[in-house]
DNA sequence: ATTATTTGCTCAAACGTTTTACTAGAAAAT
DNA sequence: ATTTTCTAGTAAAACGTTTGAGCAAATAAT
């Protein structure tokens, strides 16, 4: 029985312009003109154009975007460089970028840098090699020099989530200062006196701004303690090993409230507090940047600031597409969009 | 001041093979040979090869993958088609696919189908148009016919998360039957008598298998009630509007326990139960497929089955890469990998 | 000393498009 | 009747690679 070997059937070459051209005895260029929608301006007769379109459809023609891209110099691809696509925050970002890009007929390639400048560099180079029309980049610590060199090359990009100190490029971020100020102020208003702040990497612009909001809120409230004793830095890759020790340390320092600079820190800490039997908000108060689903089902719910991810992505794609089209009329701008304060029961 | 207009500086054309060739007064082909690592087999002298590599580095050469791909017929890209990249389950999948693909020097493009067959078809066509070397596809309801036609074309793909009934292709899924059987059995063992099942789309193979595990566990325990009255189907896009009504209905039907077929249903329902003041596990028992972070911080923690996503992705890439290399020796296989039962306090 | 082989490189076609320049014939203007 | 303009199309170069075929010089074999 042949049917047994059905999975061995095969090839069926891709149909290309020349196949259509041959079938209709016209030139290959004509087919190209018609199929790229230039029939009018190149005054191809309507009947012939119709015939071309028809046979293209009949034959199942699909343009080869590699060839097209090579010829036109546009790949129709946007590169998205996040820290880690499996982090729900970046997952959402990817989705909105995908949506916005699709509106402009772009497709998205992504890469996860893991906050590692070398990985970022490799990925950016790969993307450039693939002739992406532009990139949306979450910059990482110590990537300035490379990103500066990237600026010299003719490929447009915009930062998202964070900006990069030494690199004067467009950036779209949420208002990290404001959100953190609000969260910290809320803790203070609720009567918590010694508030610890936990962050993953104090070098990143978004984290810096969040810490700035935190410290300023403290100062504005007249709370004066050696702030540096209350700011804890713990890398994501040390989360399992170092976080608990630091939380314990903070508690020993007399902290009765916690400000977490992002969802991963908040979630991991929540597990710890549960383990050691601290009750929220009685024993300790908690607030956090980001609004993952976990904060909604946690008991009590966690007060937080939700970032305007969709808006950020729309803005970013908007700016990027203008840059791609060469409308580089204006100086790079840093757009900072306010998030939404969500008050729950954790403080 | 010129520095004011720094952002207006520009172009710096991409350097290509011919630039290197000219600089060294050698042929363009030679440069290509050296840079693609074929110096030995094409016996280029070591010193010249070294010089080529050196100047390539000095000039910052980056191969144009569009041109390369056009010539070689390989793009080095794998397409990943998920239902929604912002769903943490698929986010993790994307990450592991990215990792595994990177090992084989592939890059990943993704697309979200939203469980919509037309979107899926469009995305697949776009990917094919971009000459992806292969695809990893989460098939959706009513995409059989299109996927069958895709089989006819020479582009290899493998299913992940679900298989597609009428389409005989390789698939890597988690053991949905087993996991669901375990979860349901656990509920029964704990003494819950009337167990409702909630699913998003009863047509999908993974959901079918989960329901099968659920019903079989019931039957094996001698529990006999009109199962169809206890299976609720609610689409993701109806989650906000219909879910609550169905949960209420289930409760009115006397259900004292719930089996949720995926994380989104579980999480949303959790919020509802909290709202109406039902306590878990006393009033009702709960189990769920998937292990999102929310289930770890929820109080009580939610008993669930964690899918072996990383392993699934490794397997999928493995199979796909073999297909890409044309080693299509064997009949398509369906690989089903067992997940991990995580018992918490929700039942 | 001739022939055969190896070494180290060059040539040019090809991949599938897009697009500029051109042309043959028809229609319009002189 | 000749020139001009328009119409509807063709031809061919170009995009940046890879690669099979070829070739001259050097080395080895006879």
Q: Would you summarize the structure shown here?
A:
The structure is a homodimer of 347-residue chains. With 347 residues, chain A is of the alpha/beta class.
Give descriptors for this structure.
Rossmann fold; homodimer; 434 Repressor (Amino-terminal Domain); 13 helices; 6-stranded parallel β-sheet; 6-stranded mixed β-sheet; alpha/beta; elongated; disordered N terminus; 3 domains; DNA-binding; 347 residues
Could you characterize what this model shows?
The structure is a homodimer of 347-residue chains. Chain A is α/β, with parallel strands linked by helices and 347 residues long. In chain A, the strands form two sheets. Chain A has a six-stranded parallel sheet, with helices on both faces. Chain A has a six-stranded mixed sheet with strand order 7-6-8-9-10-12. Chain A has helices at 17-24, 28-35, 46-59, 65-72, 88-103, 117-129, 144-152, 176-189, 205-220, 239-252, 263-276, 293-297, 309-324; strands at 77-82, 107-112, 134-137, 157-160, 171-174, 195-199, 231-233, 257-260, 285-289, 303-306, 334-337, 340-342. The first copy, chain A, starts with 16 loop residues before the first helix and ends in a 5-residue tail after the last strand. Chain A folds into three domains: 11-63, 434 Repressor (Amino-terminal Domain) (Orthogonal Bundle), CATH 1.10.260.40; 74-174 and 310-336, Response regulator (Rossmann fold, 3-Layer(aba) Sandwich), CATH 3.40.50.2300; 176-308, Response regulator (Rossmann fold, 3-Layer(aba) Sandwich). In chain A, helix 5 (88-103) links the parallel strand 1 (77-82) and strand 2. The structure holds a DNA duplex (30 and 30 nucleotides).
């Amino acid at each position: 029985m042949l049917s047994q070997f059905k999975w061995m059937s095969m090839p069926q070459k891709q149909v290309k312009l020349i196949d259509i051209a041959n079938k209709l005895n016209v030139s290959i260029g004509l087919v190209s003109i018609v199929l790229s929608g230039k029939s009018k301006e190149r005054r191809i007769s309507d009947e012939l154009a119709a015939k071309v379109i028809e046979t293209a459809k009949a034959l199942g023609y699909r343009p080869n975007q590699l060839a097209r891209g090579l010829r036109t110099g546009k790949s129709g691809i946007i590169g998205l460089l996040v820290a880690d696509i499996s982090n729900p925050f970046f997952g959402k970002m990817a989705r909105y970028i995908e949506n916005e890009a699709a509106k402009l007929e772009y497709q998205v390639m992504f890469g996860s840098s893991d906050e590692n400048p070398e990985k970022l560099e490799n990925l950016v180079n790969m993307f450039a090699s693939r002739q992406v029309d532009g990139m949306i980049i979450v910059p990482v610590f110590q990537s300035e020099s490379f990103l500066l060199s990237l600026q010299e090359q003719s490929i447009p990009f915009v930062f998202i989530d964070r900006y990069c100190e030494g690199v004067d490029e467009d950036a779209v971020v949420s208002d990290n200062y404001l959100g953190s100020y609000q969260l910290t102020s809320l803790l203070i208003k609720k009567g918590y006196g010694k508030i610890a702040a936990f962050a993953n990497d104090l070098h990143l612009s978004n984290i810096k701004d969040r810490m700035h909001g935190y410290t300023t809120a403290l100062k504005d409230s007249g709370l004066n303690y050696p702030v540096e004793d209350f700011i804890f830095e713990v890398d994501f890759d040390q989360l399992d090993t170092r976080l608990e020790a630091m939380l314990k340390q903070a508690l020993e320092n007399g902290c009765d409230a916690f400000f977490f600079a992002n969802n991963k820190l908040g979630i991991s800490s929540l597990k710890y507090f549960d383990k050691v039997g601290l009750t929220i908000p009685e024993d300790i108060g908690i607030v956090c940047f980001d609004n993952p689903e976990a904060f909604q089902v946690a008991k009590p719910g966690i007060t937080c600031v939700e970032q305007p991810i969709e808006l950020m992505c729309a803005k970013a794609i908007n700016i990027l597409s203008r840059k791609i089209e060469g409308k580089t009329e204006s100086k790079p701008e840093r757009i900072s969009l306010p998030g939404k304060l969500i008050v729950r029961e954790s403080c």
